Amino acid sequence: MTRRRTHRTSVISLNTGCGAQATNHPYPARTPVLALDFGALSVLVTTSAGDLVTASDVEFARQLAREAQAFARSVERSFHGLAGGKSVAA
Question: Which of 15, 18, 30, 44 is most buried, with most CB under 10 Å away?
Answer without folding.
Answer: 30
